[in-house]
Amino acid sequence: MIILDGGVGCVLYAGSSNCTRRGLGLGGPTNWEAGFIYRLTPKHRRQLEPLLAFAGPATEVLPDQPPKTEMPTGEEEPAVPWFLSEVTAVGTEVTVSFREGVPIPGDLIVLMEVPSGVGDSIYWVLYRHAPQSELARKIVKELAACPRCDRDLVDLPAEESTGPIVPRVFVEVRWEGKHSMFPVRFDDKATLPLLLVGRKPTEGELIDYFLFGREPRDDGGDGVDPGDGVPGWKPDGPIDTRRILAYFIRRFVQAIPGIEAELQQASYSQTALDAALRGPTSPQELAERAFASLSRPSMPDEPEKTPTAIGFQLTEILAALLRSQAKLEDETLRACFTPVIGRCRELIGQLDEAHPELCDGPFRAYRDRFVGSMP
After folding, report:
1. Which pLDDT tens digit goes with each residue over 112-143?
2. Could you give the 3-state DSSP secondary structure of residue 161?
3. The total number of structural domains that make up the chain
4. Domain check: are 269 and 358 in the same one?
5. What is the distance between the alpha carbons of residues 81 and 77, in angstroms, rounded to a whole number?
6. pLDDT average per 10 residues of sequence, the chain (375 residues)
7. Using CB atoms within 10 A of its CB, is residue 50 exposed (0-12), middle (13-18) or buried (19+)?
8. What is the number of other CB atoms lying within 10 angstroms of the CB of residue 308?
9. Phi, psi for 147 (deg, rounded to 5)
10. At 250, which helix (H) or strand (E)?
11. Which of 66, 75, 89, 279 has the highest local Cβ count within 10 Å?
């Protein structure tokens, strides 16, 4: 935005032109730009005061003096626990694996928060390095017998659990004054959400949980209050949306940014990116599950899937993979996407063979627009 303000009037420009000779077309080669020019009345000029106040005090630019500048402050890079290979959970057993050849910090502590709706935070202590202990590259902990501590790492007495023991989707890693959250991979995908909500989760909830980190809590199905003052689903509600396909698709769309965020977060190494692309909670696994769901009966709280809905899911997953791959400059990391993208295209091809109606019309145009034409 450029404002020319003087005694004879005020003009506002808003558009793509930078304040340069090429941008403003002041002679010589110029750029193609798009913008609007407004001649402002005194009333409109007064409306600019909040905008000018937001921009800060004015700085005078003189032809014989360089303008005052201020070095931007860099944001501190988030701490990354490079020494961790993966954290997996099967039932209530959690395994912490370390990278081969990478030193383990001497003050490392790995915690997992105990699910609790009241009181201060309590943590399971999955790993606490002791100087006299042997450095194992893999630690296996059964949560039922795992020691516990508070936020300040003060040990808490053991107590019998009165409810189901549920692992969390992240662990907290502390070392050398640093702090980081590290995702947990769940090998037993079908049972964990059952413990969390006490019922069979919908496919949309699984997508949210495994790829977006959002725990199932809304539309409980049994009239249970999910907490935080948010009323749960009631049996006499006017509409039960769980079996409405449009709502299912909306939940899926909301998970797409989570897929891309997970891939971007894992793009610091080939190993991490491969796990994010092809692991049990990955886009490839999601595509396989979506494709397989068309050939199995819907669960009681799932909508009836259609070929178009499955085609939409596969297309959006493929588009997310293509966008994520395009953001990377490292050719080694970009190559990690190739087999997963190929598998998604293969699934779309199989869907086309089984349902030729998807090969023409609006759906074909939509698909070609976002992922290119299929062979």
Report:
1. 988 765 557 889 999 987 765 566 788 899 99
2. coil
3. 3
4. yes
5. 12
6. 87 90 86 91 85 80 83 80 89 89 89 74 87 73 90 83 74 92 73 42 53 49 41 39 57 77 87 87 86 77 77 90 90 93 92 88 82 76
7. exposed
8. 17
9. -65, 155
10. helix 245-265
11. 89
Confidence at residue 239, expressed as pLDDT on a 0 to 100 scale: 42
Q: What per-residue confidence (pLDDT) applies to 109? A: 93
Does the pTM surpass 0.85? The reply is no
User: Is there a domain that residue 362 lies in?
Assistant: yes
DSSP codes, 73-102: PPPPPPP--TTEEEEEEETTEEEEEE-TTS
Task: Give the Cα separation of 243 and 273 in Å (integer).
Answer: 34
Structural domain includes residue 223: yes
Question: CA nearest 278: which of 329, 319, 337?
Answer: 337
pLDDT for res 77: 77
Q: How far apart are CA 59 and CA 44, in angstroms?
A: 23
Please indicate, yes or no, whether residues 353 and 248 belong to a single structural domain of this protein: yes
Q: Which residues contact 321 (CB under 8 A, 6 or more apart)?
A: 263, 277, 283, 337, 340, 341, 344
Same domain, 263 and 363: yes
Distance of CA 208 to the CA centre of its chain: 10
Residue 79 lies in a domain: no
9-15 β-sheet, strand order? 2-6, 9-15, 35-40
Q: Which amino acid, 134?
A: E
Residue 35 phi/psi, 5-degree rounding, is: -170, 180
Final residue in a domain of this structure, among 162, 186, 210: 186
Residue with tokens 């023409």: 360
H or E segment and range at residue 7:
none
Query: Does residue 78 lie in a domain region?
Result: no
- What whole-number distance in Å separates Cα of residue 187 and Cα of residue 183? 13
Model confidence over 307-316: pLDDT tens digits? 888 888 899 8
Write out the residue range of the structural domain in which residue 275 sits: 198-371
Q: Quick one: pLDDT at residue 206?
A: 53
Strand, helix or coil for residue 4: strand
274 within 8 A of 185, measured Cβ to Cβ: no
Contact 359, 366 (CB under 8 A): no
